[in-house]
Design goal:
Blueprint: H1 2-19, E1 32-37, E2 39-43, E3 56-66, E4 69-80, E5 83-93, E6 100-111, E7 117-123, E8 126-127, E9 133-134, E10 137-143
Parallel strand pairs: 5-7
Antiparallel strand pairs: 1-5, 2-3, 3-6, 4-5, 7-10, 8-9
């Protein structure tokens, strides 16, 4: 009886360790670092600016300096009345597969304002020497009432 009890415990421990072990190389802890990419170009087609409550697409370009950098999303860093501070959020993973190659990437920012106004979209372009954020690209978009 003691032998069966010991075998049961070993089997339970063995099964538990197999259940939480992954053989794939896609673990969530992949040693990546989040951050912002420096915005380089922002294009807004004036004909595509829509009225309040409707989406306006804005093309935002930035550089990826290696194959292990990945765009995640656009982040609202802050806002002040009619000014919105936007960052291009991404991540940098590490490994031997990373190849150094600068690629200009463009993603679409979908902007849907809730009121008619002149909006100033300020895009993050790096940091000053004193560590403060720099917003070097500013786009004014006039959103009209419907």
């Amino acid at each position: 009886m003691k032998l069966i009890k010991k075998l049961s415990i070993f089997a339970l421990v063995g099964f538990s360790s197999l259940a939480v072990t992954s053989c794939l190389n896609n673990d969530d802890n992949n040693d990546s670092t989040p951050g912002f990419f420096e915005t380089t170009i922002v294009e807004v087609n004036k004909d595509s600016i829509n009225p309040v409550g409707k989406m306006t697409n804005i093309n935002v370009s930035f550089n990826l300096s290696n194959s292990c950098q990945k765009f995640e999303n656009f982040t609202n860093i802050g806002s002040n009345y009619d000014t919105i501070y936007i960052g291009v959020a991404g991540s940098q993973s590490y490994g031997s597969n990373c190849t150094q190659k600068t690629v200009l990437k463009t993603e679409v920012l979908q902007f849907t304002p809730k009121k008619a106004a002149d909006y100033y979209l300020k895009f993050w372009t790096g940091k000053y020497e004193n560590g403060k954020n720099k917003y070097g690209i500013v786009k004014k978009i006039t959103i009209k009432a419907q």
